[in-house]
Amino acid sequence: MILWKFLFVAVQPAFAWADMRHMGQIVCHGFGTDLSMTAYLMAPVVLWMLAEAWVRSERVMARILNGYLWFVAGAVAVTMVVDSVLYPYWQIRLDATPVFYFTTSPGAALASMAWYLEVAALLLTAALCWALHWLLHTVQRKIAVRVNASVKARVTQTVSFLLIGGAMIIPIRGGVTVSTMSPGQAYFSSDMRLNHAAINPMFNFLYSISRVDNLAEAFHYMDDAKAQALMAPLAKPIAPADSAALSLSVKRPDIYLVILESFSSELMPSLGGEPIATRLDSIAATGALFTNFYAESFRTDRALAVILSGYPALPTTSALRYPNKFANMPSLARVLRNAGYGTYYYYGGDANFTNMKAYLVATGFDNIVSDKDFPVSERLSKWGAHDDVLFRRVAEDSRRSPFLAVVQTSSSHEPFEVPYQSAHKDERANAFAYADSCLGAFVDSLRASGTWERSIVVIVPDHWGCYPKGLKDHERRHRIPLVLTGGALRGVPARLDVLGSQSAITPTLLSMMGLDTSSFFRPVSLFDTAATHRAWLAEPEWFTLKTERGQTDGTIADKTVTGAQPDLTKAYIQTIYTDLNKR
User: Fold this and answer.
1) Residue 232: CB partners within 8 Å, gap ≥ 6?
2) Which helix (H) or strand (E) holds 294?
3) Do 203 and 489 contact (CB within 8 A), yes or no?
4) I need a labelling partner for 28 at 20 to 30 A (CA). Which of 195, 208, 342, 460 fits?
């Protein structure tokens, strides 16, 4: 495990050779999690030694031990490879998240990787497993000691290993103090890369698995009554729609909600970015562009509940992990369906991935189009149907007005393989340019149709941006555009700098139509001048609450909160987890 830290820093693109000078600190601060994980793996061996003193069949005991050595070798090999493959994409060490992805749709979980990388990963895993087993088995044979057959010798061995087993509780729990071992104990630097290198990925995985459902206690900073009191200013009713900066010319417009995969402000010249999403830029120029807007999370499954249910992102888990809570979650589709809307969801990929289909059905979508609804000849992407095929299907489908049509794109996702070549040589930039061209063509088709005057189009990325590659600045990475356009929208063009994040989208739309938002979590309309506007940002390592009074940051490892409003931020995240636990 210590050797693996050196290999991890050596092979990961996020590290340079100069980072090797920190290896002493990385090893020392990560030693606790390494020792704890070693003790976990050695505990069954202690039990084997206890049994071996009394079971007189050497062949049976040898097979049991050899089987366990294969298990350990396999577990370590899989962890090493999966952790190494995922880190460049997620910038976090292995946790429980991949289990959720693989169990819901293995194909979609692997869609980010090219096929040859998948083969290479499998071969590397097999080679590592064999090598580790050979090493463990060789060491075991070198140190094997034949036990004396006398009862006295067997009793002595039993007592010895009972004492050893009892002593192993200390490294397993991380000492004899009140606090127990956690990944946070490996943190030592303001450079998160170095903290990541120190963490034992096997320990991090088991730790996250054991705590993923402990919602009520995840961020319990204070008494719930105090938390609710601190949250009171954020729970004021939304002001009437007629006070909005924008308004609707149609009481019940057709709504297109386009969720763009991995887009960010870095792609738009009007927001200080590069000239890549030029069609989105032109659409924003004639519509309403929110310039101070943020994505709340880092993966699509976490973003869906934020956008469609107005439910703030959870840094340590995904709301889609809890199907038993879907029926009790607020929903844009459910409110609109009760108001007479048809509800449609379009996605070119596997709708079962991350419980997506279960969530959509439970929250009010009556018509779901996914990869299985496209012919095989049109499923040419690793994620399913490319964006041009998807948008064409949306434009060609007949729907009874009024309706909500949510369109989730995927072509700008890794591995960024698209049927398009722009002037951009970078594969990421080219993929975003392709998705942008498909969006532009779709909006053009709506303008040319007879439905534009009764339509509103909402365009928002799903999570933090993936361009440029390796962007470390949290705020820039989460800053995204929110664009509203359509013939049913009055007051455009407009450029609005109100502070907001994705959980405000659904309450804002519903308040514009005069529909009830009371079932949503602390709803706020972006047009409500009396509201305390905020932006909530959450990642597996940290969370941030931004308001007009300033920014407050929190860390996941030790749950410390610093900044302008620490008590409000503590109450905010505590209330989110407490609320989800009760639903």
Assistant:
1) none
2) strand 293-294
3) no
4) 208
pLDDT of residue 244: 64
Q: What percent of the chain has pLDDT over 70?
A: 94
Q: How far apart are CA 335 and CA 322, in angstroms?
A: 21
126 vs 556: which has the higher pLDDT = 126
Burial of 35 (0-12, 13-18, 19+ CB in 10 A): buried
Report the 3 state secondary structure along 467-532: CCCCCCCHHHHHECCEEEECCCEECCCEEECCCEEHHHHHHHHHHHCCCCCCCCCCCCCCCCCCCC
Side-chain-side CA neighbours of 113 within 13 Å: the count stands at 19
Q: Please state, in angstroms and rounded to a whole number, the distance separating the CA atoms of residues 346 and 108.
A: 16
Kindly state the tokens that stand for 233. 């200013």
Cβ proximity of 516 and 238 under 8 Å: no
Q: Tokens 């932006």 map to which residue?
A: 535
Which helix (H) or strand (E) is 99 found in, with range? helix 97-104
DSSP H/E element including 165? helix 151-167
**Distance from C-alpha of 162 to C-alpha of 160, rounded to nearest angstrom:** 5
User: What is the per-residue pLDDT across 254-304, written as a single tens digit (0 to 9) for each?
Assistant: 999 999 999 999 999 999 999 999 999 999 999 999 999 999 999 999 999
Q: How many CB atoms lie within 10 A of CB 485?
A: 25
**Residue of 357, 358, 354, 360 whose CA lies nearest to 333:** 360
- Distance between CA atoms of residues 26 and 162, nearest Å: 33
Cβ neighbours of residue 292 closer than 8 Å, sequence gap 6 or more: 497, 498, 499, 500, 535
Of 370, 249, 298, 236, which Cα lies nearest the Cα of 97?
298
User: Of the candidates 60, 280, 93, which has an alpha carbon nearest to the alpha carbon of residue 205?
Assistant: 93
Quote the CA–CA distance of 128 and 125 in Å, as a whole number.
5
395 CB contacts (<8 Å, ≥6 apart)? 442, 445, 446, 449
> pTM here?
0.79
Residues 6 or more apart whose CB falls under 8 angstroms from that of 5 comprise 23, 26, 27, 30, 197, 198
Cα distances from 197 to residues 20, 37, 73, 107, 475, in angstroms, run 11, 16, 21, 29, 23
The structure tokens listed for 105 are: 């749709």
For 51, the token pair is 């049994």
Q: Measured at the alpha carbon of residue 349, what is the angle toward residues 535 and 256, in degrees to the nearest 5?
A: 55
Residues in the chain: 583
In angstroms, the CA 219 to CA 207 distance is 16
Q: Specify which residues 367 forms β-bridges with.
A: 344
> CB-based contacts of 66: which residues, under 8 Å, 6+ apart?
137
Between CA 234 and CA 230 the distance in angstroms is 9
pLDDT, tens digit, 9 for 90 and up, residues 215-233: 878 899 999 999 999 998 8
Q: What is the pLDDT of residues 344-401, one digit of tens each?
A: 999 999 988 888 888 898 899 999 999 999 999 999 888 899 999 999 999 999 999 9
Rounded Cα–Cα distance for residues 100 and 109 (Å): 9
Contact 322, 374 (CB under 8 A): no
d(C-alpha 376, C-alpha 268), whole Å = 34
Amino acid, single-letter form, for residue 158 = T
Place of tokens 């407009």: 494
